[in-house]
Amino acid sequence: MTPNPLLGVCFHWLGGFASGSFYVAYRGVKHWAWETYWLAGGMFSWVIAPWVLAFLITSDLAGVLREAPASSLFWAYTFGLLWGFGGLTFGLTMRYLGMSLGMAMVLGYTAAFGTLLPPIFRGIFVTQVWGTHSGRVILFGVAVCMAGIVCAGSAGVSKEREMPAEQKRVAIREFNLKRGILVATFSGVMSACFAYGLAAGDPIKEITMRHGTPPLWQGLPVLVVVLAGGFTTNFIWCLILNIRNRTGYQYFQAVIRPAASARGESRGEGGPSEGAAAVAVAAEPVVRAPMLANYLFSALAGTTWYMQFFFYSMGETQMGRYKFSSWTLHMASIIIFSTLWGIALKEWRGTSFRTKLLVGCTLAVLVGSTIIVGYGNYLGVAAVSK
Over the chain, what is the mean pLDDT? Predict the structure, then answer.
């Protein structure tokens, strides 16, 4: 199969659209705790969708995984496990640095480490990347992507500065620059481990093609393994939260119990007397979660989330020898479409012209970075075909 970088960029944009859009479906979930709907949707993200699509589209999935080298399975799973830690600490970064600065730092680290380290570890960075014209064009595209991430962070900081004083205090009440930088570094590097997991699965891709899978779908069996690692991390953490917050019943019961604060008061842990607390709890209206709708919205969100890597694996097959650049295209596309969703949902309404200009610059620079990276891959494919 002859690589087609233009088609690859389109696949990566589809993946970015899926990643930038999946959380919209979670807005339809009512009365569930975060850990409940995250794990419900995650079952589709990390288990159901990867296995079902790989089973239906690829050839002899079970046989391929049995034949795969143990080292490849181990590292693909382990890097998926580490990637899960990156996702879970992403929220701490938002708490310590704020949404804009935190997201810019994490995605910046993720884009840089996820793109550049694989060719460095393979020993091809100097010869095939820095030492070729097409490789240097791709590196320039990576730099432009980083500039776009800086623009995104600047737009967010500008928006935060324009918040009313009371809202700003709520948003940054736990601001801690030193701690935030440490957490952002950890989260960004760990999140980049997904790219390493996909690279570790290269032998699995070769085996599945020998079993008759078309090259376009070669990455699907690898996703099964990497996402199993991510599922392990997220499952354990959500289970811990379900136990600690006493929310595990929400998977099976529609009636939502009173908040933990009310339970604490009813046990005599300060506040009103036991009798008064009991009356207050009894007076609260019964809240019922729409179970079927919640599961459907969670399934939609989880499946949409998985589709980002479904299309990513397809796009990677079209990038030729510079497939490591797929990670930059993925990061850029995520920010592009998440920013467009923010505009559609009027999250930037009421901001100054300067902030809106920064948002526009972010979109323009990131779109430009995907074009540059795609062009670099086209030059690489053309040079090989000569």
Answer: 83
